[in-house]
Amino acid sequence: MKELTIVNAYQNYLSYIMNKIKKEIRLFRLLKKLKKRDLYNHLNNVNLLNEELEKTNQLLSKINIIIQENTEKTDNHTLGATFKNKSKVINVMSKQKYIAENKKGFLLEQKNKTDLEIAKIFIQKDKIEKKVHNKKLEFGEFQDLKLEITNRNFKKN
Fold it and tell me: Does the structure show a pLDDT above 70 at 76?
């Protein structure tokens, strides 16, 4: 009789451990889902940054074309007013080019940061998957142990 209570206590302990492992697995799965959501958010940000970089590159090329067109000499008898207008255009476009280059630098920096975050999330996600796998194995071992004890009790009776 005393042996039966010890076995029952041990089975209760195993059940407690198994429930604890189930909770840990559920928490790790939730964490994995959150990391997946973060990953999709970062990938979306990278796509937006790439679009903005493309637009900025197009803007820079257009500015360069305008500057180049206005720096070319057309003839030797250029009117003073035309020269003044061209120099204003070149001045304004140079300022716009400077702003666009700064924007491009900022976007590249943000893209690099986002790429690093994505890499970190992939590493964390892999670690979480390994932990879930290990917890499932641990749960299976405890389940086998519990079945083994139950089968031993049936054989004795």
Answer: no
